[in-house]
Every structure is written in C-alpha cells, then in structure tokens.
Amino acid sequence: QVQLVESGGGSMQAGGSLRLSCAVSGTTYKWFCMGWVRQAPGKGLEWVSTISTDSSTVYADSGKGRFTISRDNAKNTLYLQLNSLKTEDTAMYYCAKGSSWQTLSSNRGQGTQVTVSS
Length: 118
Prior knowledge:
Strand order of the largest sheet: 2-10-9-4-5-6
Helix content: under 10%
Order of helices and strands: EEEEEEEEEHE
Largest sheet: 6 strands, mixed
C-alpha cells in the first residue's frame, strides 16, 4: 500500500517561496507518474502539476512559470517548488500518485498547508 507523506508547508508573504516535499513508500516509485493537487478553503480539489516517469512535466495555468515539480527516484521523493507566491495559492497541498485526475484525486497523502498573506 502506497504511503505519501508531505512536508514543507508554512506561512509566507506574497512573493515568497516554499519547497514542498513528499516521501513515497510502499510502491516502486520510479514506475509511476506523480503529481500535486491542492484544495483552497471552501473550494474543490484542483490539479496543480504532474511529472511522468521520464520527468516530463505539465502544469496548470495557475502555477505555470512559478511552480516547478521534480522527482528524485533514488530518494523516493517528490518535490514542488513554489515561487512568487500569491494569496490565491493558499491551500492544502497534496502529493498524489497517478496521471489521470481520477487517480490523482483518489491516491493522495494527508497534505501540507500553505498560507500566503498579502
């Protein structure tokens, strides 16, 4: 059974940066696409980014140019670098396994909170 444990969230002023990490266990990590989803207060789950097994990446428009997803297969760890943070980036960020929305939304960790203030 896959386990996903996120860390690195926190409170930050707009314009700042954070690096989220996700430790993956219970699966052969390098064989799977991984991603990040988020949920802002009072809103639904939103896809943020996906990285494939060959490290090709895709981003939602909301984070394009500001967020960078990466993976370290040797460390079984997924990352999300958040730069130029905006108040609308405030959300619980979840690490997720899979490539489709269905799998990402249903195979995710407990989340790490990111709060951005103006």
